[in-house]
Amino acid sequence: MASTTNSESQNYPHISETVSPSKIDPVILGHRLRHFRTAANMTLGELASQLGATASHLSMIENGKREPKVSLLTRGADILGVEVGDFLQPEAPSARAALEISVEKAQRTRHWQAMGLPALRISSGTPTPVLEAIDGLTRELRRQSAEQAATPEEARRANVSMRKEQRERNNYYADLERQAHELLSAVGHDEGPLSYHAIADIADHLNFELRFVSSLPHSTRSVTDLKNRVIFLADARNPDHDPRSVALQALVSYVLGHGEPVDYKDFLRQRVSTNYVTAALMMPEKSLVKQLKQRKKDRDIAIEDIRDAYSVSYEAAAHRFTNLATHHLDIECHFQKVHESGVLHKAYENDGVNFPVDSIGAIEGQAACRYWTCREVFGTSDRFRPFNQYTDTSVGTYWCTAVVEPSQSALFSLSVGIPFNHARWFRGADTAERSRSNCPDPTCCRTPSAELEAQWGGHAWPAARTNAHMLAAMPPGAFPGVDDVAVYEFLAAQQHFSR
Fold first, then answer.
1. Which tens digits make up the pLDDT trace of 315-365?
2. Using CA atoms, how far apart are residues 129 and 207, in angstroms rounded to an integer?
3. If I label 229, which of 181, 295, 335, 448 is the partner at 20 to 30 A Cα–Cα?
């Protein structure tokens, strides 16, 4: 993305401030150029001749297959009697043009290419009903594809694949770090917590308005109106979501060029990359690595210090630590987010820890060992300080630090662990707490003792709580779990209100 943006910035140095150079759509630009050319009763050859260009070159521009130089647009505007900005508006010049653009873009998607369909050459002679039929069919195919995109098993497989990639990269993505650094540099922020003012500066830099509303659709954290360049944020207080991170996630998704995900794996990758860059903005690599290296030298690394220094949640601080620990500090580690019931919600590891997995290698939904730090922490009464513990396992001894954080609906433990030989770099390494886990041996913590079995075996009948998501496919829609109708109705209402 960065190279494309830089190239476009060089090609369009004098564009009006109301238009973002990095987001000019060449297909729409080409149609607008064609619209003004035909309105001036000029043929392709006539305009090309006056511009000093070939008809084939101009045709490529009008078809959105080549980007024009600013000098060509300037001369073209003079010849056609319009302003350069008229070419660069984000809307199609007519309803017919909008239809042509939609069909042209559909042919460039992976959905179309995967079906092996021949390319349709669209001209002024192509009947409008034909284009309407093709556009309607492609939209329905995309809808059906999204609806069938992810069964629970496919979602688990996507998570397994993503975690494998993260492990191979030590959860460090240099290209995403670079993009975060470029954004921070653009607004003059180098270190320390990212303030609301700095986030507003990033929005201004990207030519977006941040607007808080009380009527955001229930299934969303934010809604981005790309047409009017407004990001709508919830005006209610939600302890689960820092307004700074929600605003940044929306801005970052735009910067990364995310579109409608083609399947759940694509959705997951977009979410992971968005969260990564957001964390890199809130906890800049340069300043945080400097602090961590000093803390390692002092043998005083603590996740809670990252949390407090950058005004983020413990979970965000722990995630960010895993991004940087191996790449910059040569410390292998693991992370767990565990529900108070003992079920694993999120996990990452590159230190060989023995996580529970199902038959396809998925961790999510598995029960964490009762004797691991992530479970033992729920039994502590001190919620101001982390709980530290050494745990002997079948694959080695691990030192872990954990805290409990509440959400709106439950308590979760968040823990970071490292192999025994790395524990000396961390605050709390002198803990006397020690445990033993024999998992995945079922006799460790999943099989009742002989005494309990003798007392209650055959005399208990629990009613299990069944979650609806266990019985159905992943929520339908292009963005899993999001009510598209509610989002579109919300945007329409906002546009009407703005008028």
1. 999 999 999 999 999 999 999 999 998 889 999 999 999 898 887 888 888
2. 37
3. 181
Q: Give me the DSSP letters along 300-365.
A: -B-HHHHHHHHT--HHHHHHHHHHHHHHHH----EEEEEETTSBEEEEEESS-------TTS--TT
Residue type, 177: E
| Consecutive H or E run containing 399 | strand 396-406
User: What is the widest separation between alpha-carbon atoms in the chain?
Assistant: 96
By CB neighbour count within 10 A (0-12 exposed, 13-18 middle, 19+ buried), where does 365 fall? middle
- In this structure, what token pair is assigned to residue 379? 């039994």
Q: Is 229 helix (H, G, I), strand (E, B) or coil?
A: coil
Helix (H) or strand (E) holding 225: strand 222-225
What's the count of helices (H) and strands (E) in the chain, helices before strands?
20, 9
Question: In Å, how far from its chain's centre is CA 79?
Answer: 44
pLDDT, tens digit (0-9, with 9 covering 90-100), for 255-292: 999 888 877 888 889 999 999 999 999 999 999 999 99
Q: Which residues contact 71 (CB under 8 A, 6 or more apart)?
A: none
Euclidean distance between CA atoms 454 and 435, whole angstroms = 27
- At residue 22, φ and ψ (nearest 5 deg) are -75, -10
Cβ atoms within 10 Å, residue 257: 12
Residue 435 has phi, psi (to 5 degrees) of: -140, 170
Nearest-angstrom CA–CA distance, 149 and 146: 5
Cα end-to-end span (Å), the chain: 34
Instruction: Report long-range pairs for 359-368 (Cβ below 8 Å, ≥24 apart).
Output: 360/153, 360/156, 360/157, 360/160, 361/160, 362/156, 362/157, 362/159, 362/160, 363/159, 363/163, 364/156, 364/159, 365/156, 367/342, 367/343, 367/446, 368/336, 368/338, 368/342, 368/343, 368/344
- Cβ-count burial of 463 within 10 angstroms (0-12 exposed, 13-18 middle, 19+ buried)? exposed
The answer, as to whether pTM is greater than 0.85, is no
